[in-house]
């Protein structure tokens, strides 16, 4: 095939080339070829462009720039060769092979080999001089630039720099310093780069934009964004104005340095000026929006990135997946992951970790387990945090067998369980009522050197309550107080819940426990289980209790207190508590009315509170019929179709049996799960028949 010979100061021109260019430059060219590495002298009025190494290559692609693209010219501008810079040579010519040997590609390859020899040599003046002396006495400026630009050993690069600066006179000495700084960047040695910069100043060498962009990118690659900002803000003092590439890179640096306002300001300006922004900077912007909680902003940046033709990389995808996890938007994480796979990317550990966090936090149990098993199949290990994320999810979803499998895998992998690991497992066994396993896990926790925290002790109290081991509940409360832990609302709510499962003759023990944990709640509980005569005080004290507790536990407290009333056959007090809950808006939207249907909505209530609400609603329906008010064609009760995560029995099952006991004409709707419906025609005679028995719940 033909050889294309690029005209450059190092190119070897032949008469054929001269004849081609004769029309543009009639004056002769003079060549002087030395032995070994070819050098030359060139005299011409033709403006020939000297090959330089560019230092303003894209910061996001520092390690992967093509050597042939790294060109910088004496005037500081970059150009590309036009097709007119090449001459076609007949491959059948007897001189073709000779021309090929003398082409600049061959010379460049020889200089690269010199760079490799310097990288592997001892960092001594003698060794470096021995290697470079092989270049002969006529070393060109661009030869020095090419050699150092291809080096990766900063120690020998410094010695080579001194060798060249002592022997050559540079047109622009900043270029040889810039490529040497680039060697420090390859090694992420910002200290070395900064020291070399100081040497430049001491020698009177003026830094240029390429100098600063190289040091800036070195700081970024070294994960020192504050240093990048520091160097960026020095540029004006040297009379330099950053170019678009540098400005775009600083969006990333300012963002990672914590100056979000500046980063976003530069981003807005970048969009206006249509700067080219790299994938690393887009990833930082996604992270900035994610950390500030603006998750829609994350998605907008991602869409803008694709719109301008910037290709997302693994960092972009992993950052976006992590943001969607914190946003609790697992469905969007699934969509982004699907796009990533469709674009040919292979998931990394970071990808799987982000997916596990996203699915685990949102309790997408099946999806999280699929990711976990895929990681195991590929031999990708999990961290302690990821194991704990999975176990916490299993505890919330009631995945007992899966939790045991994950825990055994955690131990076999050599990852040591921490207090949160044991806490999740104790919760799982406690909620399942497996007292022995819960206690065994507690013992393992103590042997590992961890003291039980309030979450562990709360779970144990729940476990002992289910097993009706009241004395163990009392002992656990005392242990909590001995550890100096202050009972919180969740702990007190658990004690209340245990009371709803405890025989009447042991309620006094638990009332004492509750009073130790929360004196106001203990007082209300004692009024509730006391003999009659305290009705007025009870409602007043209950109202004061709800006023002084957190909104996150008010419904749980009210539900448990109503359940306790129902268990003790105190229907009137249960109704008082339900009315108080409606007044204080602890319960909202329990009833709805339309021209076609009146409904009772019970999904957020405990079984006792739901039965009490049913009693009140049926009484209101009876009064409506008595007063002559027309009922709508349909009456409905919505219990929801869910069930307790550690039980097969949900509210719908409780109501199904209770409605049968009442002989109520409500039947489960086959096409509406969780709904019990009846018609006006069936309801009215049943309500009439209840006049003599309005006290039934």
Describe the structure.
- The chain has 697 residues and is mainly alpha-helical.
- 59% of the residues lie in helices and 4% in strands.
- The chain has helices at residues 15-21, 96-101, 104-120, 125-132, 141-149, 154-167, 173-186, 190-202, 209-221, 225-232, 244-257, 260-273, 279-291, 295-307, 314-326, 330-342, 349-361, 365-377, 384-397, 400-412, 419-431, 435-447, 454-466, 470-482, 489-499, 507-517, 519-529, 535-548, 551-567, 571-583, 607-626, 651-661, 680-689, and strands spanning 3-6, 86-89, 591-593, 597-601, 634-638, 667-668, 675-679.
- The strands form two sheets. Strands 3-4-5-7-6 form a five-stranded mixed sheet. Strands 1-2 form a two-stranded antiparallel sheet.
- Helix 31 (607-626) links the parallel strand 4 and strand 5 (634-638).
- Helix 26 (507-517) packs antiparallel against helix 27 (519-529).
- The longest helix has 20 residues, at 607-626.
- The chain is elongated.
- The termini are far apart.
- PPR repeats lie at residues 173-207, 208-242, 243-277, 278-312, 313-347, 348-382, 383-417, 418-452, 453-487.
- InterPro entries: PPR_rpt, PROP1-like_PPR_dom, Smr_dom, TPR-like_helical_dom_sf.
- Belongs to the PPR family. P subfamily.
- Residues 600-686 form the Smr domain.
